Amino acid sequence: MKATIIIIIIITLCLISGQVLCFSVIGCTGGSVMFKCTYKSNDQHKEKYFCRNRDCTTGISTETQRRWVNNSRFALYDDKNNRFFTVFIRNLSREDDGEYTCGNNQTWSHNVTLVVNKNSSCGTSVIRSANIGKTITFSCKYDRKFKKHTKVFYRLNADPVHVLNSSQSSQSSEEKFILSDSQKDHFNVTIRDISTADSGVYLCGVERHESDDQPSETSNTHITFIKEIHLNVHSQITSVQVEAYISKSVFIKCKFPQKFKENKKFIQKDSSPKIPVDEQNQWVRHDKVHMYDDTSEGDVKVFISDLTTADEATYRCGVNIADDDDPFTEIKLTVNQDHQFSTSSKSAAVIGESVKLTCNYPEKHNETIKHICKENKKKICQNISSSEKKRFEFSDSTAGVFTVIISNVSRRDAGVYWCGAETRHKHVTSVSLTNKHELTLTMPPVVGREGDSAEIKCPYDAKYAKEIKHLCKGKCFTEDAQNIIKSDEDHVKKTKISVKDDTELNLFTVTMTELRAEDAGKYWCAVKDEFNLPIELMIVMKDVITHEASVGGSASISCKYIRNQNQGFFCRGDQPNICVRDGVRVSSKSSKNGRFSLTDETSAGVFTVNISNLRAEDSGKYWCGEENSGSFILTEVHLHVKK
After folding, report:
1. Other C-beta atoms within 10 Å of 583: how many?
2. Sign of the torsion formed by the C-alpha atoms of 377, 383, 388 and 392
3. Which residues form the signal peptide (predicted)?
4. 316 vs 281: CA distance, rounded Å
5. How confident is the model at residue 12, as a pLDDT?
6. Whether residue 521 has pLDDT greater than 90
7. Least buried of 29, 207, 239, 492, by fewest C-beta within 10 Å?
């Protein structure tokens, strides 16, 4: 009330002479004010000042025109064309309250009363953050008595203040700065498509005069700034959500513009210090996080295995440019409980043939890309090379399950594979790896006939060319292994076995002659204890069983056991290895299959196969076989069904 009475008295005294020689400016603690002091045309080139006392120790003065001049919290701009100068005072305090003069040193002056009020809703200062390309909105609260007043939004810069928008100006929704006034108690300012140039300090204000009434067109107005916003712009390229599973692995690739491909990269977990990727074009490790800075592609690759809930966090992969302006991509990693994925599986593949791997993935990822990768020596799962991808065929089998068929399997395919769902965004590719497959290799079975010879061929990597090769019955370098021959042994000492090591073809060949039933079994080619490749030797007995029967009748075929305590089986196929793999009809474990049945007579050393209701198409080649721990001995059977 006292301040209002003082203002009324001042206004009355200032108007006695018929012109405005003095006026009041109202601000608030912590806020800012901006106002104009007018002058006559003949005073354009004279020094201007705004001071609290004669020596101007508090205030500012200048002869400079059309450029902002600064002195601590005070700034002055002389606009000679419009015959006024503007005064800006920032960060007001109650000590600033009092009488000032604006004018020149010769012919004129105005008395200015600066009133600094204390108001909880005025003079606030906040810090806001935004990312490049995004939109941000500020809310500026004002006293309800100013709901009809003009609202303004300014920016502090080198000038130091620049008006960006006003509630009285016409606005388009496409403008960068949009001001919307509720005309109740606040107005909002929206900044669109933010760039790094938008970092800085902004001011919300109300245009008013010395009373609380709405100013008229002839009023001597000023701006009371009620809020100060410090905007920090981060160079975030994008933010994505990545889901992974406990005990599984996740692969993330962050892509950056080509202009940054030579810059050093970093990884950051939550608010922890940045982890620099010190080496480029090679995998580096920090705790359990593996990182790869690929300068050829401008990518950063991140691989985390054996996930736990402690790995759930917000990660940043970024480019080192400047401490406050490093562009980065934000990855929000969630690690879920795994209730549907198998821990791991083992598969065996025959070199030269195909193998099928089964993979699970969350059904909600049905539209994502199916992915498979292979662990390297550092147990980092890396993408299959483009030259090899053509041998990998993907297909969906049921909901949440897909299969991968690897064709024409070779030595280099052995190892550990992971499969899962791949999700691609514009700047981020993530793969949640859910299934682990350990793939071992074996050579195609070697079939030798009793009394004849057989060649066991062992291919090896070129790096083993000068090493000694081994052929063992049983896995080499284990207690139960039987050493058959080494590449440096003289075959004269083993008359039925010879060896040849072709270092140009990287092929170690063992020839076994005068084959017997006991030669059947699983053999292993090995180099040191680093390379072990299993090969099955099947022995076909000399004797051939021939059986004739009629259509509609039955056939009873007696098969002799060569060894004791074996499992018998009966299969159909032109070749014994194909018969064993695909054509088994009945066995000691599964003695009934449609028209086929098997009866074991172990005391007599035989098993009998019965085929009922014979058909003409039953004619063909069959095999009586026996198996013991993966060792096969077979006898050829010819069945002729007459009409």
Report:
1. 18
2. positive
3. 1-22
4. 19
5. 43
6. yes
7. 492
Helix (H, G, I), strand (E, B) or coil at 145: helix
Mean pLDDT within 440-466: 92
- Average confidence (pLDDT) over 494-523: 92
Dihedral (Cα; 480, 486, 491, 494), 10-degree rounding: -10
Residue type, 104: N
Token couple for 271: 């608010």
| pTM for the model | 0.59
More confident residue, 321 or 304: 304
| Alpha helices in 365-439, H assignment, sequence order | 386-389
Measure the CA–CA gap between 227 and 132, rounded to whole angstroms: 24
Q: To which H or E segment does residue 432 belong?
A: strand 428-449
Q: What is residue 299's three-state secondary structure?
A: strand
DSSP assigned state of 43: G
Helices (H), 353-429: 386-389
Q: Are 602 and 508 in contact (CB under 8 A)?
A: no
Tokens of 460: 């090896």
CB 298 within 8 A of CB 256: yes
pLDDT of residue 524: 93
Please list, in sequence order, all residues whose beta carbon lies within 8 angstroms of the beta carbon of residue 616, skipping any fewer than 6 positions away: 551, 641, 643
Cα angle 284, 433, 263; round to 5: 30
CA distance 177 to 192: 7
| Helices and strands of the chain, counted as H and E runs | 3, 49
489: how many CB neighbours lie within 10 A of its CB?
17
pLDDT at 324 exceeding the cut of 60: no
Q: Is 249 within 8 Å of 433 (Cβ atoms)?
A: yes
| Share of residues in the chain with pLDDT > 90 (%) | 43
Q: How is the beta sheet containing 275-276 ordered, strand by strand?
A: 236-245, 328-336, 313-319, 265-269, 275-276
Burial 229-246 (b: 16+ CB within 10 A, else e): bebebbbbbbbbebbbbe
Q: Minimal CA–CA distance to 589: which of 539, 625, 537?
A: 625
Phi/psi of residue 350, nearest 5 degrees: -90, 130
Q: What is the rounded distance in angstroms from the CA atom of residue 420 to the CA atom of residue 527?
A: 34
Cα(249)–Cα(261) distance, integer angstroms: 26
In contact, 293 and 279? CB cutoff 8 Å? yes
